[in-house]
Amino acid sequence: MARYIFITGGVVSSLGKGLASAALGALLQARGYTVRLRKLDPYLNVDPGTMSPYQHGEVYVTDDGAETDLDLGHYERFTGVSATKADNITTGRVYKTILEKERRGDYLGATVQVIPHVTDEIKRFILSDARGEDGREPDFVLVEIGGTVGDIEGLPFFEAIRQLGQELPRGHACFVHLTLLPFIKTAGEMKTKPTQHSVKELRSIGIQPDVLLCRCEQPIPPGDKRKIALFCNVRESAVIQALDAKTIYAVPLDYHRQGLDAEVLSVFGMGDAPAPDLSRWETITETLTHPDGEVTIAVVGKYTVLKDAYKSYIEALVHGGVANNVGVNIDWVESEELEADPQAAVERLENADGVLVPGAFGERGSDGMLRAVKFAREHDVPYFGVCFGMQMAVIEAARNLAGIACASSSEFGPTTEPVVGLMTEWTQGNERVKRQEGDDLGGTMRLGAYEAVLKAGSMIAGIYGSGSIWERHRHRYEVNIGYRERLEDVGLKFAGLSPDGVLPETMEREDHPWFVGVQFHPELKSRPFAPHPLYASFIAAAKHKSRLV
Prior knowledge:
This protein is of the alpha/beta class. It contains 18 helices and 25 strands. A nine-stranded mixed β-sheet has the order 13-12-14-15-25-24-23-20-21, sandwiched between helices. Strands 5-2-6-1-7-10-11 form a seven-stranded parallel β-sheet, with helices on both faces. Strand 8 and strand 9 (about 190) form a beta hairpin. Helix 5 (about 115-125) packs across helix 6. It is globular and about 75 Å long. The chain starts with a strand and ends with a helix.
């Protein structure tokens, strides 16, 4: 039977529970164990699909089409285990499931209550089938609870894991609590009181943490460590210091040096566990901290004030740098900045070694993105358009090269030249999915992994080394195949199509050093030890440009 590790947080949000969960999972893997990671989100949305990037950050998409929390991206990148719909749940989905059961009469007339019905549904999710692709049950299931202890919306989740702590066989549950140890500069000392209060709150609802993971800016003095252990009722060895790291991929190494994995295993009575093989983490950390030069990539987006909106892009660019042994400096460009003056793009992007236009929704900032596309095309700067970025490249070519002055996207409003239009019908599995203009937004996009057929001899087929690929999608609008001939006449080639030849999946320019657009999101499948080939090739092109004399 799998052992369960519950990761909670206190004091403040954004301490890094997701990263801590992923790093712990990687350490257990390094010792030869199998893992699966899950996330419980307390908000009432059914999923994050309709939430603003400013509210939630990136929406991570799984192969099976789930729109999930960005922490699942950390899980996949650190462990290589592909997440599914079964690995992320929200309060909204819990209540939706319960209310559907109540309407069907499944509760046989009983009064539906938070306890036991809501907590039972949460426990059912936590204990649901966690077997991997090989059909084997994992050795450990790590469950991260979003938010902080004491939040009203999180109480049902904390109660559910408290119950599981009693219901699971003895020695099959471990509670890891992540807290903050602030350093007050004016006083010149570290303060343990926030951590004490957080643990007190956790204990008041019946959960005694086994391990404390303490985020801090400076090493914890031995006296403070003893004090925390005494007042929080944990072993001194279980007070683990979590300092800021130079790179997130050094976190597993840092946590191992502090004894996190050993302490967790001791909770399960597994003190004789095999020693970890951390060689690959040591190698990637060395590569990231001692690169052979640096390239600058201008990311021209709409949500650049919140970097978490582009988390997977950031990491995929880093992975591309690893593949080429260079550091990647990201120059964040708010697309609206490029709209005031035709020369703005030239002045803002002239020092970029590559331009990336990421996914987005809505018309705001699109003119700035079009100017970024034009700059990259005319100045031979490597260009990578992802999802919305591909659509912008197609519209730019239609307007400026094909003479279709009114070319636009129906997403921006009525147009006589819908070069990009609403996707109304597509195949999902063996069924046709249909969408109309007035439909609800939630869950009505092309989501998850779909196949694309690549044209033999094309640049993108050469990058992949394959004629058929499966990539993850998240979009409502498609490039209109009806404009294919006019666009290809001006050099923009559709080298990848859906198997039925109806939906353009990739485009490229043969008259440019590196100009690629894709309708899917390759960054979602990039890993530090397996950089995505498109990002590796893009950074290689940027590296070449940066070293041209």
